[in-house]
Each structure stands twice: as structure tokens, then as C-alpha cells.
Design a protein that fits this description.
The complex is a heterodimer of chains A (170) and B (155). With 170 residues, chain A is mainly α. Chain A is built from eight helices and one strand, in the order βαααααααα. Chain A has one domain. Chain B contains four helices and nine strands; from the N terminus they run E-E-H-E-E-E-E-H-E-H-E-E-H.
Chain lengths: 170, 155
């Protein structure tokens, strides 16, 4: 039987009654299991969720003005630390600088991102595979999407400074 | 994510993509055991070796946000990948992992993937994927769901 076990599964519910009864039993059992989750297991889940969110953003970029880098950074820090200032200390930056990056009052410097990369390597090492280029990719993806989605703001002024002195024929 | 060629031991990178409407014409019982055209209005994914358009496995699923759960409705491998003589291994594991990743992405630490196999094969899923049993349903949640993702989701 095992030989054929993986050809397929048909799990479609046959009736509303079956579906509701399964849902109730499953939820009761899960709530008991959820109560037994350790803090460490919850943190690991949240970090994996964060990684998947970042990958999803890189796969399907959103052309809007949201600050994805800082949103992901805030999620990262708040998942691991009770106080953001402790993270700032761990990567040797002033808490106010971290706060400014998270609140979009300043751009992260190269040094900041590099320290974040090394910190993430340490954190994700025992959680899941996490490419160290991910933070940079998110940062630049956001720049590209933000620039492209706000052309009506910057284009009129920038266009004044650009001309084509040599014509290119079709 | 990768599947394993059982005859050579070579691994091949795969991609799991949403099934497109024209794909359904090819998804009959002959090669895929179920009539997948019935699933046309569901969320259905196909597994292919990267760069190939040949569909080696399929899964359809239902998101149930108010229960932080995704239910696998239907899952199959293609005919030549069934049983001891299968060409590729790890197709089912990769399909379940794909659904697990969507569940963790959406629900975080509350994520759950459920399915309801026939009782004869349930034990196989319990043993191989470390699933929990509740009545006739099987499910995988944190922490086992994290182990499953880590086992299958790597380059």
C-alpha cells in the first residue's frame, strides 16, 4: 500500500456538515497544541514568516510608496527583541539612528545594512535558509518601485535637464 | 526546491506555479488520476522542473483564514511518478511544502495545513510528514510545519 500512497489524495469535503464537524474538531485539537508552543517556536515561526514575506515582495514587487525595507526591519527587530534599543546596541548604532531608519526619517547607510546582514546571518543560522543579499534586494527593490511609481512627481523637473542632441532614427 | 531523479540520483530544481486556464485541458484522469478540470475555480498549483513545461504534480487548496488554515483539496503526482518505479521522487513533499509556505506566510505561528486522506494511506502521511491526527483529518502546524519547510525549501 505504501508504494501507492503518494499518487494522490482527494480531501474534498463531501458536505457542509462534514466540513463543519472536521473544522470544529481540528480547531479544538489545535488550540490545545498552540497553548504548548514555546516562545522560541513562536519566534522561529515569525522569522520564517518574515523571510517568506520578503521573498514574496521580491518575487512580486508592489509599485507604491510603502516603505517595505523599514517595515520588514521593524518586524525583524520586534520579533527578536523586547526593546529596539537592545538591537541598536547589538549592531553598535545609536538607538536614535535605528528609530530614524524604522520611521523613514533617514536612509539606512551602507554600514547599517552590512551590520544588519551579519546580524541576520547569526539569527537565521538556526531557523531557516536566509540569503544574506535579501536585505539589500528589498532595499533596492523598494527604491526602484518607489521611483517608478512616482514619476509624475519627479519627471517634470528632471526632464528640463535632459535632451537628446543626436537623433536616433526608428 | 528540488526533486530527485530516482534512476540517476541527480536533483533537479523545480518551480511551483499557479495552473493557467489552458493547462486544464491537459489535466485529465489518464495521467493525473483525477479530473482536474473540476478544480478550475479553485486555487491550483503545478510542479514543473525549472525550464520545462511538463507538469509532474498538482495540488489544489482552499484558504480558510478564520481558522488560520489551508486545506489541501486534491493532490497528485503524474502517472509515471507513482509507486516503486517512479521517475522522480519528492514531488508530493514539495507540493505539501508549497502549501505550508503559503500558510506560514499568511498565518505565521498559527499556520495549519490540513488534508483528509483515506484511512489506508493516512499512516504514510503521518510517518513521512510528521502530521497530527484529529479524527479523520491530518494536519501539520508549528513546530512540525517549520521542519517540513526546512527539509524541502532550499536551493
Amino acid at each position: 500500500m505504501i508504494e501507492d500512497s503518494e499518487y494522490g489524495v482527494d480531501s474534498r469535503y463531501k458536505s457542509v456538515k462534514e466540513r463543519e464537524s472536521d473544522a470544529t474538531a481540528l480547531m479544538e485539537a489545535r488550540l490545545i497544541r498552540m497553548k504548548n508552543l514555546s516562545k522560541d517556536q513562536i519566534i522561529r515561526s515569525k522569522l520564517l514568516q518574515l523571510k517568506l514575506k520578503m521573498e514574496e515582495y521580491l518575487k512580486n514587487p508592489v509599485y507604491d510608496n510603502r516603505n517595505y525595507f523599514s517595515e520588514f526591519l521593524a518586524l525583524y527587530v520586534d520579533t527578536i527583541y523586547a526593546k529596539r534599543s537592545v538591537f541598536a546596541k547589538d549592531i553598535d548604532i545609536a538607538p536614535v539612528s535605528l528609530s530614524q531608519v524604522i520611521n523613514n526619517h533617514r536612509e539606512p547607510k551602507d554600514d547599517f545594512i552590512l551590520r544588519l546582514i551579519i546580524h541576520s546571518e547569526m539569527v537565521f543560522k538556526n531557523v531557516c535558509e536566509f540569503h544574506n543579499k535579501t536585505w539589500y534586494q528589498v532595499y533596492f527593490q523598494e527604491k526602484i518601485c518607489g521611483t517608478m511609481s512616482s514619476q509624475e512627481k519627479w519627471r517634470p523637473e528632471i526632464e528640463k535637464h535632459v535632451r537628446l542632441s543626436k537623433s536616433i532614427k526608428d | 526546491m528540488k526533486i530527485l531523479d530516482t534512476s540517476t540520483g541527480k536533483e533537479y530544481p523545480i518551480e511551483i506555479l499557479p495552473v493557467e486556464s489552458e493547462d486544464f485541458n491537459l489535466l485529465g484522469k489518464g495521467r493525473y488520476f483525477f479530473d482536474w478540470r473540476i478544480e478550475r475555480n479553485q486555487e491550483v498549483y503545478k510542479l514543473q522542473i525549472s525550464g520545462s513545461s511538463d507538469i509532474l504534480g498538482l495540488v489544489s487548496m482552499e484558504r480558510i483564514p478564520n481558522e488560520w488554515r489551508i486545506h489541501i483539496r486534491l493532490l497528485t503526482v503524474s502517472k509515471e511518478n507513482k509507486g516503486n518505479g517512479k521517475k522522480y521522487d519528492k514531488i508530493t513533499g514539495n507540493l505539501i511544502t508549497h502549501v505550508a509556505k503559503i500558510a506560514v506566510l499568511q498565518f505565521g505561528e498559527l499556520a495549519c495545513v490540513s488534508l483528509k486522506p483515506k484511512s489506508q494511506i493516512a499512516q504514510h502521511y503521518i510517518d513521512k510528514y510528521n502530521m497530527n491526527v484529529t479524527g479523520m483529518s491530518l494536519s501539520i502546524e508549528v513546530p512540525e510545519i517549520l521542519d517540513l519547510i526546512n527539509l524541502y525549501d532550499h536551493d
